[in-house]
């Protein structure tokens, strides 16, 4: 064996972690991150790195770590013995942040034959002193003490195990223990028959297998006990309101939209034209001959649907909060000419409202088509436009009591962001007498019990973390958390706003969305920011337990937690829906594909179907459990409905322009051979006004996750791929499942032209 060969073998390369590969080396850059555990030394015949790239820590400082690492040295070679000082501990800063210290003799000599017994003893003494791993971060420093305190802490497996089947994949995703694997196996088997839309059966709805029933019951009791003992009184004392008449409320419900909208709706071959006035609605079965299994309503609320959220309740009446786009009176600035960016600056207060609609249900939990929907309550405020709101996930009052035993019908706690730059929580209730009439109750709220401003910024998103805890993200990257059951939350509401118990800079830029792992993982939160990254934090130790996802090329404007797969779902730039599991947050698992930019996604805590809305107006559903648990499965996908909008047509089209589009006829035109399709058959009123078209009845299909943009076959490589631009009013702007256990098949979708569709879409 040559001297050069033995020298290369003696200088052992740094072993690679089985958890951190080269492409994920950035995940351990934090000083508080934990080492990945023990490793097997990796022999490599390549030349070692130059000494100039080495970081040399203090050789006399012994790391305070509980990990032991066996250093394997080749005993071949010759040289003279040296003292302790000649064997410093060296750690290279390469692609791995976790480095294993290496004992290397000076002047290229190795430990082996030819050494004196005294020199060999000194060598082994030095080796034993520095054989433990030292966690080095780029920029220097160590954090072995913090990591050694929790040796099992990890950010996840960097790559799937190369050898193995579904069992190994599930262990990589959910953990190696039986209690980690049992919930996902039960979830997979329970919803095995559901491909896309939820099955219309009481047995198809249930709480997550990952959620402990004891924990849910304890949280329910704690929330309702707090509300009964102190919460209800605190809101009653701090919330100032008065009743308005219908005439007084008109200014609060006004918007700049037209008084009516033409809607083409019905069977694909013979659609019907309806003119919906603002505030009116029709049954979704109206234009169809078969009306038995169609349970839903189509509303025209005038302007763009800003947000729509179901209240959590198990009563026979379900409540839906809806807000439409409202602007301040007076001339509006033109696009791209606003001197103050509305996403970073607050507006002056102006009148606006939130509508609360009530929908009846039968004894089976299905939407009752015989009961007309009613506008039960209109919340009128002078705080500017409501931009986003969320209902408390747990009803604070005992809604299972009979209505005749209550003075008021308590709907829930509604947290919202208004354009004046403040976050408020409203206690929403209805008078008992109002539930027996069809009249609308108009309530003006001038002061909220929980009213919080933000210094030098505005709130951008919010999310309930439990029945009493609210988290708010801001435009400067800070996160604030309040717990309503804390005694200091409401004590200073008359003098100073309540101070959050958590207020920390978690991002360097704008926080776009905020998602929580409630109910099974309430301590885990995920955010998307304007820099393209998504980040996950454990609120118990946010400084050390956090990680980032793969960077996206577009802004992620929608973000949700999928309870059944224990992952956060969000769109990417290729029009696909990605899952980021907790243990593999920095890896994308794709389950759905859209034909346009994804604008809204929604998941349910009581069933696994995901709703996905796009800029083209399509709403599609799928069950991702099969795809997540078995990567070879191609998931099914089904379109709930497709919505299109066009503006007024100035020039009357010719007969050649009247043709069938991909989803059906453009207008209410008979395309049979006997019917002349000339221009005289198109009414002038039909063309001079905007028109919306809704088509449905699509079959389920398997689109495949591989998107066409990845195709290697390019017909004309010199021409770039085209991008379709859709009308702004066609987009899906609001999407939500009903979170209640008995009514989990109810869904709502809001559109950019003011249409709102509420339907029980169980099959």
Shape: globular
The number of helical segments is 10
Low-confidence stretches: 1-113, 129-154, 658-680, 707-712
Strand order of the largest sheet: 7-6-35-34-33-32-31
Radius of gyration: 31 Å
Based on secondary structure, the structural category is alpha+beta
Number of strands: 38
Mean of pLDDT: 78
Q: Give the % helix.
A: 10-25%
Strand content: 25-35%
Largest sheet report: 7 strands, mixed
Our measurement of the CA-to-CA distance between the termini, rounded to an integer number of angstroms, reads 74 Å
Describe the structure.
There is one protein chain. This protein has 763 residues and is of the alpha+beta class. It has ten helices and 38 strands. Among the domains are: 1-159, no CATH class; 648-671 and 678-689, no CATH class. A hairpin with a 3-residue loop joins strand 37 and strand 38 (755-760). The chain is globular, with a radius of gyration of 31 Å. It starts with a helix and ends with a strand.
